[in-house]
Design a protein that fits this description.
Layout: H1 3-15, H2 18-25, H3 29-38, H4 45-55, H5 59-63, H6 69-79, H7 82-100, E1 104-113, E2 126-131, E3 140-145, E4 158-163, E5 172-177, E6 182-190, E7 195-199, E8 208-211, E9 215-222
Parallel strand pairs: 1-3
Antiparallel strand pairs: 1-2, 3-4, 4-9, 5-6, 5-9, 6-7, 7-8
Helix pairs in contact: 1-6, 2-3, 2-4
Organism: Lactiplantibacillus paraplantarum
Keywords: DNA-binding, Transcription, Transcription regulation
Protein name: LexA family transcriptional regulator
Length: 223
Protein backbone atom coordinates (compact mmCIF):
# COMPACT_ATOMS: atom_id res chain seq x y z
CA UNK A 1 0.00 0.00 0.00
CA UNK A 2 1.39 3.40 -0.99
CA UNK A 3 0.91 6.73 0.74
CA UNK A 4 -2.03 7.78 -1.41
CA UNK A 5 -3.87 4.49 -0.85
CA UNK A 6 -3.26 4.85 2.87
CA UNK A 7 -4.81 8.33 2.90
CA UNK A 8 -7.75 7.25 0.74
CA UNK A 9 -8.48 4.35 3.09
CA UNK A 10 -8.42 6.64 6.12
CA UNK A 11 -10.69 9.13 4.37
CA UNK A 12 -13.24 6.45 3.50
CA UNK A 13 -13.12 4.96 7.00
CA UNK A 14 -13.66 8.27 8.78
CA UNK A 15 -15.76 10.26 6.29
CA UNK A 16 -17.25 7.75 3.87
CA UNK A 17 -16.05 9.50 0.72
CA UNK A 18 -13.62 12.10 -0.56
CA UNK A 19 -16.31 14.75 -1.10
CA UNK A 20 -17.42 14.74 2.55
CA UNK A 21 -13.82 14.76 3.69
CA UNK A 22 -12.96 17.72 1.43
CA UNK A 23 -15.75 19.80 2.95
CA UNK A 24 -14.59 18.97 6.48
CA UNK A 25 -10.93 19.68 5.69
CA UNK A 26 -11.71 23.01 4.02
CA UNK A 27 -10.20 21.93 0.70
CA UNK A 28 -11.63 21.74 -2.79
CA UNK A 29 -12.75 18.28 -3.86
CA UNK A 30 -10.58 18.54 -6.98
CA UNK A 31 -7.55 19.42 -4.85
CA UNK A 32 -7.89 16.32 -2.70
CA UNK A 33 -8.55 14.10 -5.74
CA UNK A 34 -5.44 15.52 -7.41
CA UNK A 35 -3.29 14.79 -4.35
CA UNK A 36 -4.55 11.22 -4.17
CA UNK A 37 -3.94 10.65 -7.89
CA UNK A 38 -0.70 12.56 -8.49
CA UNK A 39 1.00 11.86 -5.19
CA UNK A 40 1.34 13.39 -1.74
CA UNK A 41 4.95 14.36 -2.32
CA UNK A 42 3.90 16.57 -5.24
CA UNK A 43 1.30 18.46 -3.20
CA UNK A 44 1.62 21.82 -1.46
CA UNK A 45 2.77 21.46 2.12
CA UNK A 46 -0.15 23.51 3.49
CA UNK A 47 -2.66 21.21 1.78
CA UNK A 48 -0.98 18.09 3.16
CA UNK A 49 -1.09 19.62 6.65
CA UNK A 50 -4.83 20.32 6.28
CA UNK A 51 -5.45 16.74 5.21
CA UNK A 52 -3.46 15.38 8.14
CA UNK A 53 -5.22 17.66 10.63
CA UNK A 54 -8.63 16.52 9.39
CA UNK A 55 -7.59 12.88 9.68
CA UNK A 56 -5.98 13.31 13.09
CA UNK A 57 -2.53 12.20 11.95
CA UNK A 58 0.88 13.83 11.64
CA UNK A 59 2.50 14.55 8.24
CA UNK A 60 5.44 12.35 9.19
CA UNK A 61 3.04 9.42 9.61
CA UNK A 62 2.48 9.45 5.86
CA UNK A 63 6.20 9.16 5.19
CA UNK A 64 6.38 6.04 7.34
CA UNK A 65 3.66 4.17 5.45
CA UNK A 66 4.73 0.68 4.46
CA UNK A 67 3.29 -2.82 4.43
CA UNK A 68 2.56 -3.59 8.05
CA UNK A 69 -0.15 -4.55 10.50
CA UNK A 70 -1.57 -1.04 10.00
CA UNK A 71 -2.11 -1.63 6.30
CA UNK A 72 -3.57 -5.07 6.92
CA UNK A 73 -5.94 -3.52 9.43
CA UNK A 74 -6.99 -0.83 6.96
CA UNK A 75 -7.77 -3.45 4.33
CA UNK A 76 -9.95 -5.35 6.78
CA UNK A 77 -11.63 -2.17 8.00
CA UNK A 78 -12.82 -1.32 4.50
CA UNK A 79 -14.53 -4.71 4.27
CA UNK A 80 -16.53 -4.13 7.46
CA UNK A 81 -19.98 -2.56 7.47
CA UNK A 82 -20.16 1.03 8.85
CA UNK A 83 -21.29 -0.02 12.34
CA UNK A 84 -18.40 -2.44 12.73
CA UNK A 85 -15.97 0.12 11.31
CA UNK A 86 -17.14 2.54 14.00
CA UNK A 87 -16.63 -0.10 16.69
CA UNK A 88 -13.05 -0.71 15.55
CA UNK A 89 -12.37 3.01 15.31
CA UNK A 90 -13.78 3.69 18.80
CA UNK A 91 -11.64 0.92 20.28
CA UNK A 92 -8.50 2.20 18.57
CA UNK A 93 -9.30 5.77 19.62
CA UNK A 94 -9.68 4.72 23.28
CA UNK A 95 -6.42 2.79 23.12
CA UNK A 96 -4.65 5.85 21.74
CA UNK A 97 -6.07 8.10 24.46
CA UNK A 98 -4.93 5.66 27.15
CA UNK A 99 -1.48 5.48 25.57
CA UNK A 100 -1.15 9.26 25.42
CA UNK A 101 -2.57 9.87 28.89
CA UNK A 102 0.12 10.85 31.32
CA UNK A 103 0.13 8.51 34.32
CA UNK A 104 0.83 10.26 37.62
CA UNK A 105 1.47 8.53 40.94
CA UNK A 106 -0.16 10.49 43.77
CA UNK A 107 -0.99 9.90 47.42
CA UNK A 108 -4.63 8.85 47.84
CA UNK A 109 -5.96 10.05 51.18
CA UNK A 110 -8.59 7.91 52.94
CA UNK A 111 -11.93 9.70 52.69
CA UNK A 112 -13.43 13.14 52.98
CA UNK A 113 -17.00 13.16 54.17
CA UNK A 114 -19.34 15.47 52.31
CA UNK A 115 -21.15 15.53 55.65
CA UNK A 116 -18.36 15.74 58.25
CA UNK A 117 -20.50 14.19 60.97
CA UNK A 118 -20.25 10.94 59.03
CA UNK A 119 -16.51 10.72 59.51
CA UNK A 120 -14.70 10.82 62.83
CA UNK A 121 -11.35 12.51 62.56
CA UNK A 122 -8.35 10.35 63.30
CA UNK A 123 -5.09 9.22 61.76
CA UNK A 124 -5.26 9.76 58.01
CA UNK A 125 -4.79 6.61 55.95
CA UNK A 126 -2.64 7.29 52.89
CA UNK A 127 -1.75 5.01 50.00
CA UNK A 128 -0.28 5.75 46.59
CA UNK A 129 -1.98 5.03 43.28
CA UNK A 130 -1.58 5.78 39.57
CA UNK A 131 -3.96 8.28 37.96
CA UNK A 132 -4.51 9.69 34.48
CA UNK A 133 -6.08 13.02 33.55
CA UNK A 134 -4.80 14.64 36.75
CA UNK A 135 -5.59 18.39 36.76
CA UNK A 136 -2.59 20.68 36.51
CA UNK A 137 -1.26 21.64 39.93
CA UNK A 138 -2.88 18.79 41.86
CA UNK A 139 -0.62 16.84 44.20
CA UNK A 140 -3.04 14.67 46.20
CA UNK A 141 -6.17 12.60 45.57
CA UNK A 142 -9.06 11.91 47.94
CA UNK A 143 -12.28 9.92 47.74
CA UNK A 144 -15.46 11.84 48.56
CA UNK A 145 -18.08 10.32 50.81
CA UNK A 146 -21.63 11.72 50.77
CA UNK A 147 -23.81 13.75 48.41
CA UNK A 148 -23.55 17.31 49.73
CA UNK A 149 -21.37 18.44 46.80
CA UNK A 150 -23.57 16.96 44.10
CA UNK A 151 -24.13 17.47 41.24
CA UNK A 152 -20.58 18.84 40.90
CA UNK A 153 -18.87 16.10 42.93
CA UNK A 154 -20.49 12.71 43.40
CA UNK A 155 -20.52 10.26 46.30
CA UNK A 156 -17.56 7.90 45.94
CA UNK A 157 -15.80 10.09 43.37
CA UNK A 158 -12.03 10.54 43.57
CA UNK A 159 -11.08 14.19 43.24
CA UNK A 160 -7.74 16.00 43.25
CA UNK A 161 -6.45 18.90 45.29
CA UNK A 162 -3.34 20.98 45.84
CA UNK A 163 -2.07 21.04 49.40
CA UNK A 164 -2.18 24.63 50.69
CA UNK A 165 -3.25 26.41 53.84
CA UNK A 166 -5.34 29.18 52.29
CA UNK A 167 -8.05 29.45 49.64
CA UNK A 168 -10.05 32.36 48.25
CA UNK A 169 -13.72 33.09 48.89
CA UNK A 170 -15.91 30.71 46.90
CA UNK A 171 -13.21 28.13 46.22
CA UNK A 172 -13.76 24.47 47.07
CA UNK A 173 -11.40 23.05 49.65
CA UNK A 174 -10.62 19.99 51.71
CA UNK A 175 -10.80 21.12 55.33
CA UNK A 176 -10.38 19.62 58.77
CA UNK A 177 -12.94 20.66 61.35
CA UNK A 178 -11.65 20.44 64.91
CA UNK A 179 -13.21 17.40 66.53
CA UNK A 180 -15.58 16.76 63.63
CA UNK A 181 -13.64 15.19 60.79
CA UNK A 182 -12.49 16.14 57.32
CA UNK A 183 -14.85 17.51 54.70
CA UNK A 184 -15.05 18.95 51.20
CA UNK A 185 -16.87 22.28 51.02
CA UNK A 186 -17.08 25.63 49.30
CA UNK A 187 -15.37 28.16 51.56
CA UNK A 188 -16.53 31.65 52.49
CA UNK A 189 -15.13 33.96 55.17
CA UNK A 190 -17.14 36.12 57.57
CA UNK A 191 -14.49 38.47 58.93
CA UNK A 192 -16.89 40.39 61.16
CA UNK A 193 -17.65 37.32 63.25
CA UNK A 194 -14.33 35.49 62.69
CA UNK A 195 -16.15 32.56 61.13
CA UNK A 196 -15.64 30.30 58.16
CA UNK A 197 -18.79 29.36 56.26
CA UNK A 198 -18.77 25.84 54.85
CA UNK A 199 -21.23 25.74 51.98
CA UNK A 200 -22.51 22.64 50.15
CA UNK A 201 -23.39 22.60 46.46
CA UNK A 202 -26.39 20.39 47.18
CA UNK A 203 -29.17 22.78 48.21
CA UNK A 204 -30.69 20.35 50.70
CA UNK A 205 -27.79 21.05 53.08
CA UNK A 206 -27.66 24.30 55.05
CA UNK A 207 -24.39 26.28 55.24
CA UNK A 208 -22.37 25.59 58.36
CA UNK A 209 -20.69 28.38 60.34
CA UNK A 210 -17.52 27.44 62.20
CA UNK A 211 -15.09 29.63 64.16
CA UNK A 212 -11.97 30.21 62.10
CA UNK A 213 -9.70 28.76 64.79
CA UNK A 214 -11.60 25.46 64.51
CA UNK A 215 -10.99 25.02 60.79
CA UNK A 216 -7.78 24.07 59.02
CA UNK A 217 -7.53 24.30 55.25
CA UNK A 218 -5.82 21.18 53.92
CA UNK A 219 -5.91 21.97 50.23
CA UNK A 220 -7.68 23.55 47.28
CA UNK A 221 -9.79 21.23 45.13
CA UNK A 222 -8.85 21.30 41.44
CA UNK A 223 -11.52 20.05 39.04
Amino acid sequence: MNKEEYLKDLIEIKYGNVKSFSEHAGLKYTTVRSILERGVLNAKVENVIKICDALGIKPEDILKVEDSIINDTNKKMIQLNPDRQQNVYNYADNQLKEQNSKVVNLPLVGKSAANPAELTYGDVEIEHDDFTDVPHGADTAIRIQGDSMEPLIHDGQIIFYHQQEEVENGEIAIVEIDGDGVTCKQIYYDYTSDEVILRSINKKYEPRHVKDDQVRIIGKVIL
